[in-house]
Structure formats: structure tokens, C-alpha cells
Amino acid sequence: MSRLTRRHTRRASQTGLLADSHLQVEITDLLAEYRLSHRFRNEGDEAVEAVYTFPVPLDAAFLGMEATLADEHLTAKVEAKAEATRQYDDALAEGDSAVLLESLRPGLLCVNLGNLKPGEDGEIVLRFAAPLRSCDGAVRFSLPLVHRPRYGRSVLDELETPAPDFAVEHPLAASIHVRGLLAGRPVSCATHAVRFANDPSGTILQLNQATLDRDLVLVFDLPEGGLGLARLVKDGEAAIGVLSFTAPTSTRAPEPCELCLVLDGSGSMQGDAIVQSRAALRAVAEALHADDRIQVLRFGSSVVRLFRRPMQVSDRVREALHAQAGAVDANLGGTEMADALESAIDALRTGVANDGRNRAIILVTDGGVEPEELVAVRAQAEAEGIRIFVVAVGSSAGVDVLEPLATETRAVLERAVPAEPIDEVVLRQLRRLREARPLSIQVEWSDAKARALPISVTYPGDAVMAMAFLPDGKPVRAHVRVGDEHVYAFTLETPEAAPALRALAGQCAYQHAARDERAALALRYGLISQYTSAVLVKVRVADDKIDGLPRVKAVSPMLPHGMALRTAYSMAAPLPTGAYLDIPRFQCRQAVHLSMDLSAAEPSPTELLTAERRQQVMEALHAALVQCLFVDGREHVDIDRVLAHIAADLHEDVRGYLADINRDLTDIHAACGLLEYLVEQGVGEALSEDEEVYLVQCRKSWLAAPASKC
Asked: Which of 84, 248, 500, 568 has the fewest CB atoms lying closer than 10 Å?
């Protein structure tokens, strides 16, 4: 019986099988090798199959898996996916124990521990390697440790992505040993409380009493002089050249930009993430130049815009941005990110063309969506030449979803965890988008047979890792050119055994290979992929074998730190319609209005008006609103003040028109919204940018912006 059949025939449950976890990280120069061990304990009265899903960095390479089952230490082997699954299923059917590690999708793995007997412990050790990232004199190590719930319909089995359980706690102990380039350098950890110590071999960091409810992030200061490292790695009879260096900073004057800042206001942003989002808006307001243009969108189940069109940056625009930062909240329902990005692309597409501005989007979000949701909009941005720079916020952002969105549009993703200033991240992204395009980096290898791997998207000041397969395995020289300038020269002489770097090169080659080449690459370099899995089998003696099939139990993840409980459950298992979050009042009013039986309704007052009379009413309203808002300058505007500027014979028709379009004129906020609505209908003269900003400043709440009204 296959795993899929077994899971559907034996009812699965969620459990706290995961007893504890230990993390050991070895950082040498810009390479991290980490060992993550999980101990599972079966405290029930029947054999179980534990299913545990966990994230890994997208660019991490698998180095191996080991397990201790019934006091026997075993080492896994990477096999073709179908063969590994067959070995695992056969072992369970024969009463033996087994472990299967498989890829659900890039950045998300699942470990299956089958036939753990009552009272038994099983320990699984997973080893990976991942590169550290560097820019502007800082080096960052970011390790995801919890899978954040996602909004939308998942293509994965719900057993593989169970809802978080607020009642479970997964303890974590961790130690990080830093050697080489970063040993002794200033380091900060914004995600955990750590203890620091130094010894002759480097720097040691200890995490005690931590849990698997947030990512681990370390930031180091880079030594003066930047990067310039080169290694020649053995690859059988061949070799792999690995270079690490810093791209030179730009000396050109910054180019003006047309920016659409897209802020996630969905329920999953509640807590730390929304606080960071407000700070991002304030940082953008301060950093923009007078020749830039800006539009700001908030999104959840719908999209709410701040301005009707991208606005030239002025003092009043900055004031409006600062004033509205407090209205940024996680109150807009679901996470319809694709719709928001389409709206942002439309806003940039309709801006002034051919004026020399770089068009780009900065997306601030926790990434709580399914990856399939963004495929179409990512292609649309590529076709339009619009880059999407991402600032991933929160304690456990969905980087696996967001990073492809950035890199495929020739942009960059950066993390900003809670308690970490977001201003620097936003400024770096602004600096990058002012460049017309990423840097053109060429590495000339002296080996004519060298096969260079693609270099990731790089902007001035970013670190670069360049790799090439060298079939001859001989010492080589490498010359690096950035644009037309020669920047670095390296000599790689003695090949060394470096399994982690070899695996990283294999992982990079796999990601850029043609589809028909990937399976062979995954097997050659021992990768976990859509074509390969790792498996090990514990053969039990005859009187120790397990009768029947184990009960399948999913290990529930912890609720991510800083995330609201109700929202997490709503994302993983959507509540009934209307129960996801409180529906904004204007949406409720719209739903009631649309649900009326229009065929039985009496004609509205304006339906009895001629087209000429209706136009006259709209023009009179426009003129009166302009007078009240921009000339009289009164803080209080209502229907009586507006009618005072309109001829008496139009009053009844004006009231009928307002009722027909479902508008009230009770305050200055409503007056601003109505004026913008009339302008959008082509009534009166276009508003000046100062008038547009004035209307924004008059609003009581960004949530009730005119784009969202009926």
C-alpha cells in the first residue's frame, strides 16, 4: 500500500510528536554548514508514522541525513524519487522502520518517520550548506525554522502542511561557531537572545530555551576592504572554481524613479509585521527626491490606493505619507497579492512615459501566499520591464515565495525581522531601483573549457559568488569585469576537498539546468529535489517487527512568533464566508446594495432625470465641493454647506443623485471622496497635485479611500 493510500485509509491526526530540536551551525568565511537534529517520541499505544514539514533556504544544498532508530545508527542514500518512495513503503509494509526525506516544492521539505513503536525515540539529523549574503559592509545569515501559514488554495496535501497549533511548543537549542573571515567581528542577533564567547578557533554563539517559532538571523560587520576570496574545489577528476567578491559601489548620480510602494494589509500581517510596514512607509517618505514620483497601495482582499495617480514628490506629499503611516493596519482581510501587484503595474504603466524615470515596485509583505498565485503577475512584470524589489517582514516570512518574484524581475529580496531597523533595508532597495538595471558581471577563466554558472542579480555594493566547473581540474586564473572595468584578479592553485562548496555548486547548476538535465545533476551531487529523495531503512528482527500499518500523524508547527492566532487558522483552514476578518463597513454596504432585487425596485430619482440634468447636477456638486474644500477652507463640510453653494432648484435632484450613488455628505472625509469620484467620472477640471494631496490629508482613514467605495 502506498503512502498516499495509507494516509487516506487511516485517519491522520496532528500531534506533538516532536520532542526537541538541536541546531549546530559552522560558519567559515561566507559559507554556513548547519546540522539540524529532531528527536521524535511516540508516547501513544500504537505504532505511528510521523510527518514533519520544515523550510530550508532556497539556495541551500543537502549534505546528508542520518537517523538513530531502536539504538541503531543509519545513514541515508539519495535515490531517484520513485525508488526512494518504493523502499520506504516496502519497509513499512514488512514491519520495519524507515525515514524518507522529500521535497514538496523549492524551499519546503518533508521528513517521514515510519513505524516508530510505542515508547520509542527516533532521532533524525539533517545537514545542509547555505551561502551568507553581504551588502554595504554587512554579512547576513538567515535560516528559516518555521513554515508560515499561507493564504489561498494549496496544491499540497493538508497532512504535509498542517495548521499551526498554539498549544504545542517545540524546544530548540542552538550553537553557532564562527571561523575565518567573520571570527571576532561585531555580530548582532535580532531574532533570539544569545550568549557570546570567543576562543582561539573563533566566535561561539549559544541559544538556549529557544523554540521553533521564528527564523534565525545573524548580521556581521564585514572587515575593512570588503571581500576577495577564491577556492578551487575537488569534483572527482575535475574541479570547481568558487569566487566571492564585492561589486564596486556606483559613482553615478542617482536616477529619478517612479515608485509604487505596495504594503500588505492582510490579516497575516497582524503584530510585528504591520509595525515594520508603517516604518517602511515613513522611511520611503524621507528618502524620496523631488524629481521622483510615488504611489502607495495597501492590499488584502481588495486594493486601496493612497493617491489617484503617481504623485510628484513635494513637501505636501511627504506630509501626506507620514500622516497616513498610522492608518497602515492588518485589517483588509485575505492576501490577494497578485491583484495588488497587477494594480501597481497598471499605475506605473499609466504614468508619464519616456521621462527617464526608473519604474519599479517595492513590495513590503510577510509572503503569506501560495507560490502558484504569483506566476502570472511575475510574467506580466517581466514583460513590462518593471522590477519588484521585496522587503520581507515578520519573524518567519515566506521567502521561498517572494525570492523568485524578485529575482525573475531582475530585482532583489531583503529580510527585515522584528526589532531590526527597516530604514536601512528600504534605503538599499531605493538605491538599487535607481539603477537602470543590475550590474553586468563577467568572469574570464583561463581554462578554455570552463563552464561558468549564472551569477545572481547584483547591484553596486552587493556581494557576488561566482562559480565555474573546470573539467581539467588544474590551477586557473580568473579575471572579473564589471561593465567595462577590470575589478578583480584571482589565482586558484591547489584543489581542496570541500563537500559543502561542491554541493552548493551542484545546487546552483541544478537550478539553472534544462529540465532534462536536472535528474542526473541531482543524483550526481546528492540533492533533494523533485526528482530525488533520501531514504534509510531500519530492518527489525523477526520478533521486533510491527504488525499492520502505522497511524499517520502530522507534527503541527508552532504558531509563528508575532502572528495572530485567528488569522493563522483562517489562512491554513479558511473560515466560512464573512468570518475571516471583520468586513469593512463600506464593503458590507456594497454587498447589501448589490444583493437587492433591482428588477422589482422603483426607478431611482436620477433615472427620471435627463442626461443633461444629471450632468448639471454633477457639475454643480463639483463646483460646490471645490469651493468648500479649497476656498472656504472649513474643517467641517456637510450636505447643508455644500447645498449653500448650489442653486435651490437643484437641491432635490442633488439629494436624489447622492442617494442613487450611495454617498453620504456627513463630514469632510465624505466630501473628499465624492470630489475624487466626480473627477474620475470626467466632471470638472482635473485636480492639481496640491489639491490631490490636500484631499489625502483630509481623510480620517486611508481604509476608506475612494478607490474602495461603491
From this structure: 248
The neighbouring-strand residues paired with 294 are 259, 311
The whole-model pTM stands at 0.85
Q: Report how far apart the first and last C-alpha atoms of the chain are (Å, whole number).
A: 55
DSSP three-state, residue 290: coil
> Which amino acid does the sequence have at 79?
E
Torsion of CA 408, 412, 416, 417, to 10 degrees: 40
Residue 273's alpha-carbon distances to 165, 338, 560, 562, 570, in angstroms, are: 20, 19, 12, 8, 17
- Residue 587: is its pLDDT beyond 80? no
- Dihedral-angle region of residue 136 (phi above 0 means left; psi in -120 to 50 means alpha; beta otherwise): left
Comparing CA positions, the residue from 86, 69, 66, 68 lying closest to residue 77 is 66
Of 410, 409, 319, 415, give the one whose Cα is nearest residue 367: 415
Band (47; pLDDT cuts 50, 70, 90): very high
Distances 29 to 131, 134, 558, 597 between C-alpha atoms, Å: 9, 11, 32, 70
pLDDT greater than 70 at residue 605: no
8 A C-beta contact, residue 510 and residue 501 = no
Closest C-alpha to 413, from 424, 429, 435: 429
What is the rounded CA–CA span in Å between residue 411 and residue 689? 30
* Distance in angstroms (rounded) separating the CA atoms of residues 176 and 187: 12
DSSP states along 519-551: HHHHHHHT--SSSEEEEEEEPPPGGGPPPSPPE
Predicted confidence band at 3 (pLDDT cuts at 50, 70, 90)?
low
Residue 442: CB atoms within 10 Å: 14
**Mean pLDDT for the chain overall:** 87
Reported in sequence order, the residue ranges of 463-576 that DSSP labels E, i.e. its strands, are 463-470, 476-482, 485-492, 532-538, 551-555
* pLDDT 10s digits, 68-113: 999 999 999 999 999 999 999 999 999 999 999 999 999 999 999 9
Check residue 524 and give its pLDDT: 97
Nine cell digits for residue 470: 573546470
**Cα(617)–Cα(476) distance, rounded to whole angstroms?**
80
Locus of grid cell 466626480: 678
pLDDT value of residue 708: 37
Q: What is the DSSP letter of 302?
A: S
